[in-house]
Amino acid sequence: MKDSISDRLAKAMVDLQETTSAVAHAQEQLRTTSVTVRSRDRSVEVTVNSQGHLSEVKFLDGKYRSMGAVQLSASLLEAAQQAQAEMAQLVLDAFQPLSERADGLPYVEGSGVDWGEIFGPLTETVERGAGARRGVSDKLRDEIADDPDKG
After folding, report:
1. Which residues span the domain enclosing 114?
2. b or e along 39-77 (b: 16 or more beta carbons within 10 Å of the residue's beta carbon)?
3. Which helix (H) or strand (E) is 10 found in, with range?
4. Which of 49, 55, 85, 94 is 20 to 30 A from 77 in CA distance terms?
5. What are phi and psi of 36, to 5 degrees?
6. In the sheet that 54-59 helps form, which strands lie side by side, from edge to edge?
7. DSSP helix/strand/coil, 99
8. Which H helix or E strand runs over 21?
9. How would you write the pLDDT of the chain (151 residues) with one tens digit per residue?
10. In DSSP terms, which residues pair with 59 in a beta bridge?
11. What is the CATH number of the domain that holds 18?
12. Does residue 145 sit in helix, strand or coil?
C-alpha cells in the first residue's frame, strides 16, 4: 500500500528536521575545533582551524636557526598539509551522520545540492595529506642533500 501524500510530506518534514539538527550539531562541533601537527623533524608545529586556515605556527627548540630556507619551508609545508588533511577528515566525519550514500558523502534527497562538489575538495585534501609525510617536503629535503654547494 502506498503512503498518502500527507504521510510522505510528514516523513519528509521529519527527515528535514533531523538533517537540520545534524548540520547544527556538526557546525557546533567544528566551531572550536583545531588541529595541531609537528613536522617529522620536529622543528615546526602548526595549528589549523576548522576552515583549514593556519592559526598558529611555532618554530620549536631553535632548530630553525640551523636550517636553510628550503629545509625550513619544507618542514612548514609538511606540517601544514598534514594538519589541513587531518582537519578535512574531521569535517567529513562531523557530517557523516548525514551520509546515506555509498561514497560516504552527505545526501539529502531532493535537495538539489551537489555534495560531491561541496565536499570534494575536502576529500582531495585528505588524500593529499596521506601522501604529505612522503611528499613535497621529502623532495625538497632530497634536493638539499644532493645540493653540490653543500658538499
Report:
1. 5-150
2. bbbebbbbbbbbebeeeeeeeeeebbeebeeebbebbbb
3. helix 5-31
4. 94
5. -120, 130
6. 34-38, 44-49, 54-59
7. strand
8. helix 5-31
9. 577 888 888 888 887 888 788 788 888 888 889 999 999 999 999 999 988 899 999 999 999 899 999 999 999 999 999 999 999 888 888 876 665 554 555 555 555 556 666 677 777 777 777 776 555 545 555 555 555 554 4
10. 44
11. 3.30.1310.10
12. helix
Which one, of 105, 108, 93, 119, lies nearest residue 19 by Cα? Answer: 108
Q: What is the DSSP letter of 128?
A: H
- Give the gyration radius of the chain's Cα atoms: 22
Please count the structural domains in the chain.
1
Select from 79, 75, 80 the least CA-distant residue to 140. 75
Neighbours of 81 (CB within 10 A): 22
Q: Which grid coordinates belong to 99?
A: 551520509
Give the separation between CA 37 and CA 44, rounded to whole angstroms: 8
pLDDT of the residue at 105: 53
Q: 138: exposed, middle or buried (C-beta count within 10 Å: 0-12, 13-18, 19+)? A: middle
Q: Which amino acid is at 113?
A: V
Cα atoms found within 13 Å of the Cα of residue 129, Cβ hemisphere only: 21
Q: Is the dihedral of CA 70, 72, 77, 82 positive or negative?
A: positive
